[in-house]
Amino acid sequence: MTKLSIPILLGSCRIGRESLKIAKFILGELVDRNQIDTELIDLGEYNLPMLEERLQDSSNPAPNVLQFCSKLGQADGILIVTPEYKNGYPGVLKNALDYLQPQALKYKPIGICTVSSGGFGGLDCLAQLRLVCLALGGLPIPDKLPISHVQEVFDENGNLCDLRLKTKLESFINQLVWYCEAMVNQKGDR
Ligand SMILES: Cc1cc2nc3c(=O)[nH]c(=O)nc-3n(C[C@H](O)[C@H](O)[C@H](O)COP(=O)(O)O)c2cc1C
Q: Mutation test of ligand 1: which of 8, 15, 117 has the most ligand atoms closer than 8 Å to its C-beta?
């Protein structure tokens, strides 16, 4: 059976970002699943230019813009890891998503993991990001994965301090996979 393609999109490029640790941890969990093909799409590495024109209007789009759009376009589903900034999601994430065609994420389930150093796990940015996903034709899944006090999630050796996160993540990934499989089967792709 062909593997499901579920990349992780990390929505921050901040120097010292804690959300990178979460994204890498989730990456490890996805890699461990035989039925998933994954990679980390790190906006900190992509360094996309600020959007000055839509991709379809651009005569000479930057190669990293094309690569970013192509990777998301080919995915069966996406797992977004984003910190909450000022009750919203980071501008760098919106800039990246604005490059995508309006229906670029059609029939793609999207799991959103929000991250914050406070006690509410970035829940304020979840609803906003779900709306953006809908505008791209994507299907934000009902499950959420808010991670609060992110600076306390791992110890100094990078080990997970609270094993309940592993259980929550497992269930979150199961749900995302369920929706991805349902969409792939419905489309008759495989
Ligand atoms: C510009 C900026 C705005 C922030 N706004 C919020 C916020 O509204 N709510 C919140 O819980 N944490 C906020 N934080 C703290 C982040 O939750 C914290 O930095 C956390 O580690 C996740 O972001 P990171 O991946 O950039 O580290 C903000 C951080 C930055 C850099």
A: 117
